Amino acid sequence: MASNGFPLFPVTVVGSWMRPKYLLDALRKREAGQLSYQEFNEVADRAVLEALKYQEDAGVDIVSDGEQRRDNFYSFVVEKLDGVKLMSLAEIMDLVEDKASYEAILRQADAPAFAIHNPTVVGKIKMRSPLALDEYKFLRQHTKKPIKVPLPGPYLLTRSMWVVGVSDKVYPSQEAMAADIVDVLREELIALRDAGVDFVQFDEPVLTDVVFNRGVKERTFMCASMSASSGDPTKELLLATRMMNSVVEGVEGVKTGMHICRGNWSRKDEVLLKGSYEPLVPTMMGMDIDQLVLEYATPRAGELAAFGHYPKKKEIGLGVSNPRSDSVESVDFMVEKVQDALQYFEPDQIYLNPDCGFGTFAERPMNSTEIAAQKLATISQAAQQLRKNYN
Amino acid sequence: MGAGNPAPFTQTNMAENIINGVNVEEFKKAIEIVGSNPEAIHAPKASRVRWMNGLKFKAQVRNHTFIVDEPAHLTGEDESPNSVEYVLAAYGACLATGFVINATKRGITIRNLEVSLESTQNNVYNFLGLTDEGHPGFEEIRAKLFVQADGVEEELREIWEHTIRSSPVHNSLTRPVNIKPELQVF
């Protein structure tokens, strides 16, 4: 048993799980205004319980609700925030002059404009209801396991929700909007902590876009449609750090994490980003969060040696399984990954998880439930083997 | 409507009358009228394109006009697409139109539909007078139709294949056309 109350090498998920067909049907009806949010949630309750069962059967130690109530990992905030409207890229492209940059996003995403929905700031941001507290409360009633709640990170929301031609009619600057986003996420983190959530994970996949597309000022796609950045990676990473630290400052009693990946919207690896986390490690270390949830199951993530120059002060949620492949990685493969990580992290600092969620976007599952369940079960087997070796 | 086996209009469709925003009854009548007129089989069309200034042109088709321009890097004013881009987009629009018609005939409700197109030309330097090699026409066109509809995937694939076979623009791009250019100096 590790000092944090979890078993050594706890097995967890990054968040999302594939949506069953009946849930997708309900989601479409919800989007078409044929179902109320409450009616949709009643359908989603069943899907959450199914997602939970898959995780519990696979031996997952820290479970999530599979993000079954969400259209995707970040756009669900439109249901909870005033001043934010879910717009498809098709709608946004009708409003903005720079249509060509959106076309480039769609090519990169290999997706139609109608399928990508972007929460867009169209008014002053104000919390209408907690972002994920209802998700947690429902799940808490149905499991005794520790629970992870993923939330979109502050930098992700700031980049994604700002649409020039729409949002700048409400806020004088992106920075002004960012301050309201920080307030909302901090309030949510405290509410989740007070309710007893074990682990809150902030998703910041766009940070890899900042360092791998250095100097790119145009709007980009990185699991979400992103507004143009300053084009200065240093400035952007400082902003991301400042925002994250403002969200978590002084909030004790809940584990916090940050998930960074290189994209999880396509099974075509060539359209996803690749490269080492190395240029991001200083930023990660500067953030006052407990755990870095990172992908390491494929070569595109680079080497764990990127952490070699830093003190062992953070936990790692080590990605040991690719959510986008049909083949299930072996126990030996996963154990070797952990053994590699043990050069840079203590045993009780290492958590095991897939590289990313299995259903980041409701309409674009990255795998079948059968293979995803096998992958989770194999991670559990790897954890059990490691516990024998290191307990 | 070209080759293939167009599906009959179903009773359900006729009762509901409007599917995908298409009035099925009216569309059926329109098809019957066109089908009973042998002169319509060749669907004669006419267009006129007038030079405005620089590399900008005004095209007229029936009572519609639209601008054809070149991008700024070719010294156009980039007010509108150029000719080749219109052909590419026309191909996408033709496929989309055909898909909607064929799905509607089968009573399939479409929620979203989008065609993504990409093309390359054999040698655009030929058009720009930089070389005599190759030709400036299309080398390859990739067209991908994204659709969300109530039909099962197998049926949607059948519709897609029929749509391609029966697409006027697809056939225009893939079959030789008897073109008769002529010059008259005024």
Write out key terms for the chains shown.
heterodimer, A: 391 residues, alpha/beta, TIM Barrel, two-stranded antiparallel ribbon, 12 helices, 10 strands, B: 186 residues, alpha+beta, GMP Synthetase, Chain A, domain 3, 7 strands, globular, disordered N terminus
Q: Number of helical runs of chain A?
A: 12
CATH class of chain A: Alpha Beta
Query: Please, how many helices of chain B?
Result: 6
CATH architecture of the largest domain in chain B: 2-Layer Sandwich
Characterize the biggest β-sheet of chain A.
Answer: 6 strands, parallel
Number of strands of chain A: 10
Backbone structural class of chain A: alpha/beta
Tell me, rounded to a whole number, the average pLDDT of chain B. Answer: 91
Number of discrete domains of chain A: 1
Using the alpha-carbon principal axes, give the shape of chain A: globular
Strand order of the largest sheet of chain B: 3-4-5
Spatial shape of chain B: globular
Gyration radius of chain B (Cα, Å) is: 20 Å
Helical amount of chain B: 25-40%
H/E order of the elements of chain A?
Answer: HHEHHEHEHHEHEEHEHEEHEH
* Mean pLDDT across all amino acids of chain A: 89
CATH architecture of chain A: Alpha-Beta Barrel
Oligomeric grouping of the chains? heterodimer
Strand content of chain A: 5-15%
Q: How many structural domains does the protein architecture of chain B include?
A: 3
Task: Quote the CATH topology of chain A.
Answer: TIM Barrel
Structure, described:
The complex is a heterodimer of chains A (391) and B (186). With 391 residues, chain A is α/β, with parallel strands linked by helices. Helices cover 39% and strands 13% of the residues of chain A. Chain A is built from 12 helices and 10 strands. In chain A, the strands form 3 sheets. A 6-stranded parallel β-sheet of chain A has the order 3-4-7-8-9-10. Chain A is globular and about 60 Å long. Chain A starts with 20 loop residues before the first helix and ends with a helix. Chain B has 6 helices and 7 strands; from the N terminus they run H-E-E-H-E-E-E-H-E-H-E-H-H. Chain B has helices at 11-16, 24-35, 83-105, 124-127, 153-165, 168-174, and strands at 18-19, 22-23, 47-53, 56-61, 64-68, 110-121, 138-149. In chain B, strands 3-4-5 form a 3-stranded antiparallel β-sheet, with no helix packed on it. A two-stranded antiparallel ribbon of chain B has the order 1-2. The relative contact order of chain B is 0.14. Mean pLDDT of chain B is 91; it is low at 1-14.
